[in-house]
Amino acid sequence: MAMLFEHQGHAPTVDPDAYVAPNATLCGDVRVGPGCRVLFGAVLTAEGGPVELGEGCVVMENAVLRGTRQDPLRLGRHVLVGPGAYLVGCEAADDVFLATGTRVFNGARLGARSEIRVNGVVHLRTVLAEDTTVPIGWVAVGDPARLFPPEDHGEIWAVQRDLDFPGYVFGLDRPAEGTSLMPEVSRRYGRALGRHREDRPVDPDGRPGGDVSP
């Protein structure tokens, strides 16, 4: 039995044909479909928006999948999320491969059969066409996506700037030179994450429980 928690009135649901490791954590409106495998140390957390795994998905060790109010996280069928990957508020169509250490950000959309190779990054609001491959360590940014090696920071920024990360994710304007968004960002995150103080463990049938570890 995994560590399952109700968050803001929503409890995880796990198909009877799925396997979730005993030290994986599922929090809130998390939906694990048939044939899925969620391995050791993985965290699936619905921070205002659901996390949905379609049939046959595999989430490897220590991956983090986070849904947001603005952008739920949805995986299609037969998606593999590699060890240590981080996905937030994104969607992947069927048969997508996300290798070890990949990062996929808010509002990104990954077309069917896409491959994000080791340590690849898909930036926010980026749209990958079907059958796109992001090479090892490269960055995909824009709609439609453009692919850059990580050292091409200037070209990445030229596309990324108009995607407006602080406005889209935090609802904040870019700071003036010599100032920082971080005090307000930390306050907003603090308020939102403080809601976890009201979480409660549930058993695999969704009923309130105490210790849900094996």
From TrEMBL:
Entry superkingdom: Bacteria
The name this protein goes by in its record: Gamma carbonic anhydrase family protein
Positions of region (Disordered): 181-214
InterPro entries the UniProt entry points to: Transf_Hexapept/Carb_Anhydrase, Trimer_LpxA-like_sf
Organism: Streptomyces lavendulocolor
Positions with biased composition (Basic and acidic residues): 195-208
